[in-house]
Amino acid sequence: MRKIQMVDLQTQYQQIKSEIDKGIQEVIDSAAFVKGKKVSEFAEHLQTYTGAKHVIPVGNGTDALQIALMALGLERGDEVITPTFTFIATAEVVALLGLKPVVVDVDWDTMNMDIEAVRRAITPRTKAIVPVHLFGQCADMEPLLSLAREKGLHIVEDACQAIGAEYTFSDGRKAQAGTMGVIGCTSFFPSKNLGCYGDGGALFTNDDALAARIQAIANHGMVVRYHHDMVGVNSRLDTIQAAVLDAKLPHLDEYISARQKAARYYDEAFRSCADLLIPVVSPHSTHVYHQYTLRLSERVASRRDEIRNRLAEKEIPAMVYYPVPLHEQKAYQDARYKTGDFPVAERLAKCVLSLPMHTCLDEEQLAYITSNVIQRFKDLKI
Ligand SMILES: *Cc1c(COP(=O)(O)O)cnc(C)c1O
User: Of 29, 161, 210, 337, most Cβ neighbours within 10 A?
Assistant: First the structure.
């Protein structure tokens, strides 16, 4: 049996080696390492794939989020609402820009932003909401979009984990993660569902003026060469990464199917275990399983580390995404928040457990993982 990893990029590379190698070699031969033609070609292909009017590639997903907030022209002290159960980058850029992160709790089933909690958190200083499509399924965008419209707020989607996930509106209209808010952001970090071989990211928008601003901000605020109209940053997707992504994009749908197939295998195996709650798929969104995340019952959650160690002895990795919600992070201590304020996120942080999830899990590995996970829970003497 192949070694089990949380993400197996080596096996995936072997399957598409010739396409990747050819793309990288072309970039080296052209020596156009920055702003080469592969970057705009890939952006165009991703436009077609997502349905977004504009795709602006940047250096990474965190930069994408930062540039999005910069492009909206927010001012110091403006409030930006984010879920408290997410990767730190979502709130980090808010704090870096001198804006005020306001965190809200999440929904127990989908682990995504609780829309009623967002409504309660809105103040006269609120300017933007950053929903995170956590673990690969869309936050409930329809009520969120109507709330934002009602209150005149911007929505910047953090779609770093959810490229290719599809949301269905009540009128049957479908839209991809990252294309519903005024700006959407994604990451091409290697382990993401569409990952490059280094850092990468992109912004999506349907707004022509915003697209131009984003483009300029990502390039030192420059519109005409050496004329800087605004304070910007240097954030570019390099051409080699664009070549890798352009080779992988045609496979994204198969990759999503492979993840969904592995998730179904896990679901079937764990459905009858009282101590394991399988991921809940929202009726509004497909799930692209960036992570396959179980929630452990109250009875066994306190034994999570022990379970992880036992699985590690069997060479099965399992990870905790995320062990500490934003409001309990040292760097984000804030007099407004205390432990107990966001009970769902706090409970999730104590009980989530993510299993290996990638595009190359085979039946033998899945059978080995599931039987060992089930056995480790049976072994627990409580
Ligand atoms: C990965 C990720 C980011 C940041 O992306 P990078 O490319 O690593 O900067 C932001 N938000 C979420 C939810 C992520 O998973």
Answer: 161
Q: How far is the CA of 332 from the centre of ligand 1 (A)?
A: 18
293 and 245, same structural domain?
A: no
Question: Encoding tokens for residue 56?
Answer: 């602006």
Taking 80 as the threshold, does the pLDDT of residue 185 lie above it?
yes
Mean per-residue pLDDT, 174-197: 98
Query: Where a domain ends, among 197, 223, 250?
Result: 250
Does any ligand 1 atom lie closer than 6 A to the CB of residue 161?
yes
Smallest CA separation from ligand 1 atom 2, residue: 160
Average pLDDT for 215-222: 96
Domain, as residue range, for 200? 17-250
